[in-house]
UniProtKB/TrEMBL annotation:
This is Methyltransferase domain-containing protein. CDD domains: AdoMet_MTases. SUPFAM superfamilies: S-adenosyl-L-methionine-dependent methyltransferases. InterPro entries: SAM-dependent_MTases_sf (IPR029063). The lineage of its organism: Eukaryota, Fungi, Dikarya, Ascomycota, Pezizomycotina. It comes from Apiospora hydei.
């Protein structure tokens, strides 16, 4: 437990909790929609060129893995885009928690979603078979280590010449933009609470700012490129709603007042603060995280 806030929250176990439900999945759909509006693509230009130029050389379908796939939204959109281009693909999604997986009957035959802890030894059938490995919003699992623990798995999954495409948002950064006469006091307070809790745990998201350098440091990737996308102002309201859903889920990690009367922040006090933050956003206050950092790299042949 973080003594400065009273919050009992471990980013490494957050995604495995049985409390993941339709609200969590709806938030992931919103996040995917917003990322696509921000990027304007599903496959970064270097990756798209690789797919197009290698089409005649492939003896089988394009193989794509999505790590931390959530509800498979990115894979579903990618299926549609590849189908329009006449590209045959096998799209495999992996997540430590299958709670958000759609029923297989509702997915295209080319999409398979499987439960897998990617930070444990890889099954042999996943080694050296993928043309593309996609990762998004994995940072909360890497705040103690940076990208180093995940890169060997990504590298092992890729075929020689295959690409990693990685997209991250600073989970420790909240920009509160006031509107009119509403200053956003409650939103700023929650931001400060979460930042203080992260610092107390030693969480470090700064590796995201050098995501390309982290990939380069592995030594097995060439042509590593980084791009930074500013979030569009017209999307601030939707990003605010995405963040509010995260904040609402975090409330359960604070102790009840009856169980910890001396805690600086209890579940009851946080929920009251959260209620006031929602009211501020309804009056025009926006909360966002500024930019999305993306990096791509090609496995050395």
């Amino acid at each position: 437990m973080d003594q400065s806030t009273g919050m009992d929250y471990d980013p490494a176990t957050y995604w495995t909790t049985s409390a993941k439900n339709f609200r969590s999945s709806a938030r992931l759909h919103l996040q995917h929609f917003l990322c696509q509006r921000t990027f304007g693509y599903l496959l970064e230009s270097h990756v798209q060129d690789f797919v197009s130029h290698s089409q005649d050389e492939r003896s089988g379908p394009l193989r794509v893995a999505d790590l931390g796939c959530g509800n498979g939204a990115w894979l579903c959109d990618l299926h549609d885009e590849l189908a329009k281009s006449g590209i045959t693909a096998q799209l495999d999604g992996y997540d430590v928690n299958a709670a958000s997986f759609p029923a297989p009957a509702f997915l295209p035959p080319s999409i398979r979603l499987k439960e897998l802890d990617i930070l444990k030894p890889l099954p042999e059938d996943l080694v050296g078979v993928f043309d593309i490995v996609h990762i998004r919003a994995f940072a909360s699992l890497l705040v103690d280590t940076g990208v180093a623990p995940l890169l060997p798995f990504i590298h092992a999954m890729l075929r020689p010449g295959g690409y990693v495409q990685w997209e991250e948002i600073r989970g420790d950064k909240f920009i509160v933009e006031a509107s009119g006469d509403t200053p956003g006091v409650a939103c700023n307070t929650i931001s400060q609470i979460l930042q203080a809790g992260g610092k107390a745990r030693g969480s470090d998201f700064t590796f995201i700012d050098q995501l390309d350098q982290g990939i380069k440091s592995h030594g097995g990737f060439d042509d590593v490129q980084k791009r930074v996308f500013e979030k569009r102002r017209q999307d601030y309201k939707a990003w605010t709603e995405d963040i509010l859903m995260v904040w609402g889920e975090i409330a359960v990690h604070f102790p009840l007042k009856a169980d910890a009367s001396s805690a600086k922040i209890t579940k009851e006090s946080f929920l009251d603060l959260y209620r006031r933050a929602v009211e501020e956003t309804e009056q025009g206050v926006a909360v966002h995280q500024g930019v999305i950092v993306t990096a791509v790299g090609r496995k050395a042949a």
